[in-house]
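Quick one, probably user error.
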């Protein structure tokens, strides 16, 4: 069943998007308008369940008369505004952002990163082989999830999901400054010694795979992770009476990870440890 949340009707406003008159409901972002018009704008730190952080700047567009480029994910459309999504200035900016990110972090598990690097002719190699920002081995300190900070672009989505936007556990935050900045538990303790309750809501929003299920991490290491061979089935968690939706990702008859639909009006993609990781119980066949 699709649940359509009731809202007050919003007025439409008109602006120009790449030379075309465009009408969107008041309060829409430029990114909302682009998506409605079928325009493909790269995004990384934007999340459909989170307040925009404006951290990555890969979504920038040009607004006529503005001194600086605007992040499409957070800038709201205004009546009469003239926006160019594919100007030379916007494309150059996206290219440089992709070069800086891809030269300093491992984007190998970031969906569409390779495609964008090609599209914008980004050349991350021009910064040389020593540009890696973190360069450390993945943190495997529990049986449920792995933190591979070489893949972290410091988008803050996990911090927001763990903190005041959803989970209110505040187990992780950004520690350090500049090149040393990284996602960390308090005093950099291992996850089992931290406040983490293993809800996995940080994994749900991480755009790069820096945070991943241990099952996915192990299968990627073994070379057996194959999304094209996986099915996704959405069902209802049986562990308690709340009735959260679970999407089971199954490969070769094994549940390999569990996500949750972001458009669910109650849970918005969030779960607790039972829904997120309790699938191992369902797979006990002995
Ligand atoms: S699993 Fe939950 S509690 Fe633990 S760091 Fe992630 S969001 Fe925070
Ligand atoms: S771990 Fe993932 S969600 Fe968290 S800041 Fe890094 S890239 Fe973003
Ligand atoms: S996606 Fe818009 S600033 Fe990151």
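Nope, works fine. Designed sequence:
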């Amino acid at each position: 069943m699709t649940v359509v949340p009731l809202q007050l009707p919003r007025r439409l406003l008109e602006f120009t998007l790449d030379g075309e008159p465009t009408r969107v409901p008041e309060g829409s972002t430029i990114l909302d308008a682009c998506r409605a018009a079928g325009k493909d704008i790269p995004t990384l730190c934007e999340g459909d369940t989170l307040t925009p952080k404006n951290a990555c700047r890969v979504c920038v567009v040009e607004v006529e008369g503005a001194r600086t480029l605007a992040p499409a994910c957070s800038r709201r459309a205004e009546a009469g505004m003239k926006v160019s999504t594919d100007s030379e200035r916007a494309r150059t900016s996206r290219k440089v952002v992709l070069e800086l990110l891809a030269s300093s972090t491992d984007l190998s598990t970031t969906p569409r990163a390779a495609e964008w690097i090609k599209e914008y002719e980004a050349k991350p190699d021009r910064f040389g082989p020593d540009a890696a920002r973190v360069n450390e081995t993945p943190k495997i300190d529990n049986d449920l999830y792995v933190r591979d900070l070489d893949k972290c672009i410091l988008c803050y989505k996990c911090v927001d999901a763990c903190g005041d936007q959803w989970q209110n556990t505040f187990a992780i935050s950004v520690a350090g400054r500049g090149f040393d900045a990284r996602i960390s538990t308090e005093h950099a303790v291992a996850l089992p010694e931290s406040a983490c309750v293993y809800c996995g809501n940080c994994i749900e929003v991480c755009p790069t795979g820096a945070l991943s299920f241990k099952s996915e991490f192990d299968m990627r290491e073994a070379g057996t992770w194959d999304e094209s061979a996986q099915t996704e089935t959405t069902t209802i968690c049986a562990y308690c009476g709340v009735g959260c939706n679970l999407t089971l990702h199954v490969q070769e008859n094994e549940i390999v990870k569990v996500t949750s639909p972001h458009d669910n009006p109650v849970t918005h993609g969030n779960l607790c440890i039972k829904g997120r990781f309790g699938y191992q119980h369902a797979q006990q066949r002995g």
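The helical segments are 30-36, 88-104, 113-119, 157-162, 201-205, 214-222, 273-277, 279-282.
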